[in-house]
UniProtKB/TrEMBL annotation:
The keyword Lyase applies. InterPro entries: ClpP/crotonase-like_dom_sf, Enoyl-CoA_hyd/isom_CS, Enoyl-CoA_hydra/iso, Enoyl-CoA_hydra_C. It catalyses: a (3S)-3-hydroxyacyl-CoA = a (2E)-enoyl-CoA + H2O; a 4-saturated-(3S)-3-hydroxyacyl-CoA = a (3E)-enoyl-CoA + H2O. It comes from the Bacteria. One of its GO terms (molecular function) is 3-hydroxyacyl-CoA dehydratase activity. It comes from Paenirhodobacter populi. This is enoyl-CoA hydratase. It is an enzyme of class 4 (lyase). The lineage of its organism: Bacteria, Pseudomonadati, Pseudomonadota, Alphaproteobacteria, Rhodobacterales. Belongs to the enoyl-CoA hydratase/isomerase family.
Length: 258
């Protein structure tokens, strides 16, 4: 499907979704978020897709929600339309793994979008920030909650209250991103990670993703029990038999998502 604000390519079982509003540093407007929700839904339902990568340009992953679109809105319009209250949920509903490949600015809603993905790989020129405070507003797509879970209260408060940016090294040190690579290596690294995931059994990949996400939603004991039950359920799959047989026979497994 052709989108106005996204370029979507499917290659070797990976859907690469590129945010494409270069004139506004990929600022997230209603069209873009609607299209992203649609692209993720179709990736989730497409048997050829086993992992998703979301990226932007070398200059900006996304410089935030679109300030031009929001500037003249009233409270009644924002509340009445539940502004950006529904589209981002589609990211959370995606069962296949999503990697954010971030270069340049990931600010405001852009940082929030990256944090909604399953993990973030960034280029050495990445800059993360929640600068909404400079506009007389606050984060609105989960930034106060997710950044705090990623980097802890002190840094999250610092970022939200001062609006300062965090560079790639600090982002890695703080646990916001899983890897930092030179800019030229960003897409090869992200695509290689996606392909590595795509080669696993989808059943165990989706189960692992559900379990890690559960860590944010429940107590340790309940989370561990949830994990153990899903772990036990893996033994109902053919892929468990294949994975363990392949190890014992010293060969590569041929997973069939069964
Ligand atoms: C709309 C934006 C934009 C944004 C950049 N642009 N960010 N348009 N919304 N968030 C546009 C600029 O207006 C400009 O268009 C073009 O992109 C290039 O930007 P410049 O500012 O000229 O580039 P540069 O000098 O390199 O500065 C880059 C920047 C700066 C530091 C990223 O653009 C910036 O501070 N942007 C805003 C960041 C921000 O505050 N984000 C939070 C938004 S609020 P023209 O037409 O002038 O050339 C938010 C709330 C989320 O995200 C919750 C919602 C529910």
């Amino acid at each position: 499907m052709a989108y106005q604000t996204l370029i979507v390519e499917i290659e070797d079982n990976v859907a690469l979704i590129r945010l494409n509003r270069p004139e506004a540093l990929n600022a997230l407007n209603s069209v873009l978020l609607g299209e992203l929700a649609d692209a993720l839904k179709s990736a989730d339902g497409n048997d050829k897709v086993r992992c998703v990568v979301i990226t932007g340009s070398e200059k900006a992953f996304a410089a935030g929600a679109d300030i031009k679109e929001m500037s003249s809105k009233t409270y009644v319009e924002m509340f009445g339309t539940n502004f950006f209250g529904t589209e981002p949920d589609s990211i959370g509903r995606t069962r296949k793994p999503i990697i954010a490949a971030v270069a340049g600015y990931a600010l405001g809603g852009g940082c929030e979008l990256a944090m909604m993905c399953d993990f973030i790989i960034c280029a050495d020129n990445a800059k993360f920030g929640q600068p909404e405070i400079n506009l007389g507003i606050i984060a609105g797509i989960g930034g106060t909650q997710r950044l705090t879970r990623f980097v802890g209260k002190s840094k999250a408060m610092d970022m939200h209250l001062t609006g300062r940016f965090m560079d790639a090294a600090e982002a890695e040190r703080s646990g916001l991103v899983s890897r930092v690579v030179p800019l030229a290596q960003l897409m090869p690294e992200a695509m290689a990670a996606a392909q590595k995931i795509a080669a696993k059994s989808q059943i165990s990949v989706m189960a692992a993703k559900e379990c890690v996400d559960r860590a944010y939603e429940t107590t340790l004991n309940e989370g561990v029990l949830f994990e153990r039950r899903l772990f036990h359920s893996m033994f109902a799959t053919e892929d468990q038999k294949e994975g363990m047989a392949a190890f014992l026979e010293k060969r590569e497994p041929q997973f069939r998502d069964k």
